[in-house]
Write a structure and sequence with these properties.
Layout: E1 5-14, E2 18-26, H1 34-60, E3 69-76, E4 91-100, E5 107-110, H2 115-123, H3 126-129, E6 133-146
Parallel strand pairs: 2-6
Antiparallel strand pairs: 1-2, 1-3, 4-5, 4-6
Length: 154
């Protein structure tokens, strides 16, 4: 059984540079059953799309009249650096992002007061080192949303 994991996806919006970071759950699925894995991927993808669509309509559109196009610039499927990305969404955060030797869109993400502290925490974490992070990290000012921010619908 593959355990449930959190997936982080960072999108940038042209032409203005708005940035959206979402955290969604990829449900547990049997590794032995390809259909179950596909279903888990689809659940994570549709949660991502729902958050994106809602934010574009309710967050971005009222704030900015431009016509936007978006790109996926980062994805991470390991536990990130810092506490903030484990907490609730619906807020703005400064997030460090470092490319990896596995290429786009795989990046190492996290929150830390400085880039030096970000790298210090990456170096102390074998799972993050296994992602092959490459310096430097860039600071992104993101809107952070998660698929657990559903209070108003409860
Ligand atoms: Zn804009």
């Amino acid at each position: 059984m593959g355990a449930a994991i959190s997936i982080f996806r960072l999108f940038t919006y042209r032409p203005c540079g708005h940035e959206l970071l979402v955290r969604v759950l990829r449900p547990a699925a049997s590794n032995a059953v390809q259909g179950a894995l596909d279903d888990a991927d689809r659940a994570a993808d549709s949660a991502t799309e729902r958050l994106r669509t809602e934010w574009e309509r309710d967050g971005l559109a009222p704030e900015c009249p431009e016509r936007h196009t978006s790109d996926l610039v980062a994805e991470m499927q390991e536990a990130p650096v810092g506490e903030a990305l484990y907490g609730p969404g619906g807020r703005r955060l400064g997030v460090w992002a470092a490319a990896t030797e596995y290429g786009s869109p795989w990046m190492v993400l996290g929150t830390a007061p400085t880039e030096a502290e970000f790298w210090q925490q990456v170096r102390e974490d074998p799972d993050l080192l296994g992602l092959g992070p490459l310096a430097p990290a860039e600071l992104h000012h993101v809107h952070f949303l998660t698929d657990e921010d559903r209070d108003e619908d409860a």
